Amino acid sequence: MDGISSRSEAIEGDNEISDIILRPFELSDIDDFMVWATDDEVSRFCIWDTYTSREQALSYIQDIAIPHPWLKAICLENRPVGAISVTPNSGIDGCRGELGYVLAHQYWGKGIVTRAVKMVASTIFMERPHLRRLEALVDVDNLGSQRVLDKAGFQREGVLRNYLILKGRCRDMVMFSLLSTNHQSD
Using one digit for the tens of pLDDT, what is the confidence trace for 38-95? Predict the structure, then answer.
């Protein structure tokens, strides 16, 4: 298996975080993928609309997720419970990559995404030495995602007003970043 793994020692409340593995998606992940991709609560702040069919999800995994330069399944016991990606920019923006993540809502609040973001941050600058900046845009109303980035060591840079249209509404977004020069591995 080609992936990144971490044994987390963290305990939050009564929820112990088990081993988290980041690995490439496989077509066989479809049923686990459908758990969060069909959930309106999960897709609320995502740029994609809630998936409505298995065929649509299979097409995404086959045509987008598998060939993506850096998109991984967030796995517990090797079962995907979410996804995390770094999308590199090109040309004059080639020193930047955009971080994105999603997690099935039954796993929210357990530190899983925070741990996954830290795992990505500890490896991405080594894997992609041309990257100098990892950034994440978060809807101003998505306080949970903002907390994830704060805990993972990202710096809040400011609010980009009326930055993009999301689900038919022009939204303010918060810009977070982590620089390769400021990052310290766990």
Answer: 999 998 888 888 999 999 999 999 999 999 999 999 999 989 999 999 998 888 888 9
Residues 6+ apart with CB under 8 A from 185: 122
107 dihedral zone (left: phi>0; alpha: psi -120 to 50; beta): alpha
β-bridge pairing 15-16 and 96-103: unpaired
Write out the E strands in the chain: 4-6, 11-12, 15-16, 20-23, 71-76, 79-88, 96-103, 133-139, 155-166, 169-179
CATH number of 4-131: 3.40.630.30
Beta bridge partners of 102: 83
Which residues are 155's β-sheet partners? Answer: 177
pTM: 0.87
